[in-house]
Amino acid sequence: MARIRVAAHVHSEWSYDGRFSLADLARAFRRRRYDAVLMAEHDRGFDADRWADYRAACAAASGDGIVLVPGIEYSDDANAVHVPVWGDVPFLGEGLQTGALLHAVQEAGALAILAHPGRRDVWRRFDPQWAHGLLGIEVWNRKYDGYAPSRAASELLRATPDLLPFFGLDLHTARQFHPLAMLTDVDGPVSEAAICDAMRARRCRPTAYRLPAPVLSRGAAVQTMRGAERARRSVARRIRARSGS
Predict the structure, then answer these.
(1) CATH assignment at residue 205
(2) What SS3 class is residue 207?
(3) Three-state DSSP class for 5?
(4) How many CB atoms lie within 10 A of CB 122?
(5) Is 244 within the bounds of a domain?
(6) Does residue 204 have a pLDDT over 70?
(7) What is the residue range of 115's domain?
(8) Which of 43, 49, 116, 171 has the greatest number of C-beta atoms within 10 Å?
(9) Kind and range of the H or E element at 11?
(10) How far apart are CA 96 and CA 154, in angstroms?
């Protein structure tokens, strides 16, 4: 087994709101000592042909110590529930109802997580049946949760203990780079298939600042991070207020 650092939930310019090319992302994450990146492009504008082209582009951008794992962040028709999906599977469709999407995920043998449950209070509408099609829950999303794990997502994970915790960047721009990773134990050479197999076998766990998730989920550590996030949001509000005056 080899233990690798994997960045989860990353967007490129293949998403309508992404800023980085796949080649630039590969270089940026390699410099930050990641071994692989779980991509998660928005489903908007994708179809079977574009998905095939995208998979080929991820393969072309991989190499020299970094693997880009192609993935799609599927959203429901209300753009509320978001589910990143990975695996060598067909494009599943745009704007699917979450239950139908997760059924398709199971049928295809793909891997899925629930992204940023705190966004639009998705955690409140969580259907326990969804758990059958999910591998995990994103308890820390850098874009939406900032410098600390989400309270709502952490509570949801406690209510669904069979699901794995994930730390995701939701990276669209350089502002979302942060030392979050999924430590993943792969069997053999690092590849899309090896990473998906390791995740399917639950050989992955989240880490931040190179510390294990349990250290960051209780006590002084999480209180310090949440204090930093409150301070960041306060400063951001003041900056927005001044720019609007």
Answers:
(1) 3.20.20.140
(2) strand
(3) strand
(4) 20
(5) no
(6) yes
(7) 2-212
(8) 171
(9) none
(10) 26
